[in-house]
């Protein structure tokens, strides 16, 4: 491993400068908010790490969501517990939603320890490790999908292992948050998250195409579908190996990206961590939950689409939801940067999401697939914008509280700013984990509603009500001037 650079004993001229290097290394001194330091090469280093972080995180999401597409073909591949999914068989629908929700549960749970890993191992090493862990569920699925007698519990275990990909999000976001100055953090985190989220869309587009290709290369029978699924999963292996190599060779680790027990304790005992976690359930939980469930929902509610060859081949257009949601996420972060925060945007997002759910219900009543797809696409766009705006709120909130604490206790400004960044990094892990867990709850609500009421309508209306509650919570904490001024002084003026 390359020796640590920037020892801290610089002359006055070099103390505010930085030398960019292509090869990965440990960097001891990192001052992104220092304009001269940033422009002397730190900006290039930050963008380099962002690029390889996006690549690795994209693969994490791709493997995390792989079951959303695989389950729609497993019935045809000869696995009886998913037979009849296309005809709305309630048992098959429930089994499919179980297999797509298990990765969400595991991924959300892993997000907390994955956040702790960055200060302990460094972003460079842990990015390579977390990418390598994706080989376990990938190669495992390739083996067992070719064993027709494999029971469902084995696939539940494999689905759980794909949750490794979900944990990558928190480690990646926590790592990148240290590289960029406050004024560019929202856009950088938005790009990083969008690159990962885009993995959902590309998987839901490519897997059905590859499965169809596999069946055409063999035969349109159970063995052909098993070959198609194998092909669609193996395609990711060389990219995973490339992500491991790129992380080890080119990424950097920051010695200043350290957190202590006090930072996590302060973050966990801060009410704003849990308020933001609740809001993130509504934005990211909805994005990932509906992304996992969308292929199953389309196939169960509109089975006649299977008769339209080109639509069936590309997964009934399910990939479009994650696609538009991924690309709208950076816009949420960028807009929050421009407006000085994100609460106003977040309130509008939740209100729009409630309206979108009402349109989805109207589409199901009318059995109109075009309206159903359009309403869902609007919902996905709004979740993306909301993901960006809520994530931008986190460092702003902790920065404002740190400034208040420093003013009250005579604390040095630089020290309080560093403390705020450490707490925000810790909070990101908790918030990301709770938000992803919301995706599991969302899918389980759909499954239980379908099982107990014979319809998913009660679950959808519950979502609409929850979104309106979340809009109210956002206003109460971060837009109601008197409260914001009392609790987080700068938020009232920054429109966070």
- CATH topology tier name: Growth Hormone, Chain: A
User: Could you describe the largest sheet, including whether it forms a barrel?
Assistant: 2 strands, parallel
> What oligomeric arrangement do these chains adopt?
single chain
Q: Which term fits the overall shape?
A: globular
CATH homologous superfamily title: MFS general substrate transporter like domains
CATH architecture: Up-down Bundle
Give the tally of structural domains: 1
Number of strands: 2
Distance between the termini: 41 Å
* SS content category: mainly alpha
- What is the alpha-carbon Rg in Å? 23 Å
Low-confidence stretches: 1-12, 489-496
Biggest β-sheet: strands ordered side by side in the sheet: 1-2
Average pLDDT for all residues: 83
Order of helices and strands: EHHHHHHHHHHEHHHHHHHHHH
Give the count of helical stretches: 20
CATH class: Mainly Alpha
Overall helicity: over 70%
The fraction of residues assigned to DSSP E strands is under 5%
Structure description:
By secondary structure, this protein is mainly alpha-helical. The chain has one domain: Growth Hormone, Chain: A (Up-down Bundle). The chain has helices at 35-64, 66-74, 90-121, 123-132, 135-144, 152-161, 164-177, 182-217, 222-234, 237-250, 261-269, 271-301, 309-313, 319-339, 343-366, 369-409, 413-453, 457-478, 481-487, 491-494, and strands spanning 26-27, 253-254. It has a two-stranded parallel ribbon with strand order 1-2. Helix 2 runs parallel beside helix 8, helix 3 (90-121) packs parallel to helix 7 and helix 14 (319-339) runs parallel beside helix 16. The two termini are 41 Å apart. Mean pLDDT is 83; it is low at 1-12 and 489-496.
């Amino acid at each position: 491993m390359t020796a640590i650079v920037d020892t801290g004993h610089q002359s006055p001229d070099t103390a505010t400068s930085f030398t960019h290097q292509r090869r990965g290394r440990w960097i001891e001194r990192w001052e992104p908010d220092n304009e001269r330091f940033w422009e002397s090469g730190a900006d290039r280093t930050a963008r380099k790490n962002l690029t390889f972080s996006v690549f690795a995180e994209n693969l994490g999401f791709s493997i995390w969501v792989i079951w959303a597409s695989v389950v729609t073909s497993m019935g045809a591949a000869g696995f009886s517990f998913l037979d009849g999914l296309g005809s709305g068989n309630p048992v098959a629908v429930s089994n499919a939603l179980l297999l797509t929700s298990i990765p969400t549960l595991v991924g959300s749970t892993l997000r907390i320890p994955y956040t702790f890993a960055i200060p302990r191992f460094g972003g460079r090493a842990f990015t390579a490790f977390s990418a390598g862990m994706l080989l376990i569920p990938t190669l495992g699925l390739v083996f067992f999908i070719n064993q027709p007698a494999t029971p469902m519990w084995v696939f539940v275990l494999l689905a759980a292992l794909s949750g490794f990909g979900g944990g990558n999000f928190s480690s990646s976001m926590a790592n990148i948050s240290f590289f960029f100055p406050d004024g560019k953090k929202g856009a950088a985190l938005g790009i990083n998250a969008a690159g990962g989220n885009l993995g959902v869309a590309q998987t839901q587009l490519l897997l059905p195409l590859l499965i169809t290709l596999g069946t055409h290369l063999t035969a349109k029978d159970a063995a052909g579908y098993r070959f198609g699924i194998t092909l669609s999963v193996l395609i990711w292996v060389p990219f995973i190996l490339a992500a491991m190599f790129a992380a080890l060779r080119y990424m950097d680790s920051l010695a200043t990206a350290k957190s202590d027990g006090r930072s996590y304790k302060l973050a966990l005992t801060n009410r704003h961590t849990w308020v933001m976690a609740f809001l993130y359930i509504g934005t990211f939980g909805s994005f990932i939950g509906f992304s996992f469930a969308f292929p199953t929902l389309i196939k169960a509610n509109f089975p006649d689409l299977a008769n339209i060859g080109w639509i069936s081949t590309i997964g009934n257009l399910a990939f479009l939801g994650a696609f538009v949601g991924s690309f709208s996420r950076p816009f949420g972060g960028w807009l929050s940067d421009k407006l000085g925060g994100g609460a106003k945007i977040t309130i509008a997002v939740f209100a729009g999401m409630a309206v979108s759910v009402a349109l989805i219900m109207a589409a199901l009543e009318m059995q109109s697939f075009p309206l159903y797809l359009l309403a869902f696409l609007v919902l996905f766009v709004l979740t993306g914008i909301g993901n960006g705006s809520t994530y931008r709120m986190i460092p702003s909130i902790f920065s404002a509280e740190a400034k208040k604490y420093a003013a009250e206790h005579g604390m040095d400004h630089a020290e309080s700013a560093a403390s705020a960044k450490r707490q925000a990094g810790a909070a990101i892990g908790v918030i990301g984990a709770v938000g992803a867990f919301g995706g599991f709850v969302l899918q389980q609500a759909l499954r239980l509603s379908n099982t107990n009421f014979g319809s998913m309508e009660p679950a959808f209306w519950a979502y609409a009500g929850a979104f309106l509650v979340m809009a109210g919570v956002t206003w109460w904490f971060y837009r109601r001037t008197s409260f914001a001024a009392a609790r987080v002084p700068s938020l009232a003026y920054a429109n966070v």
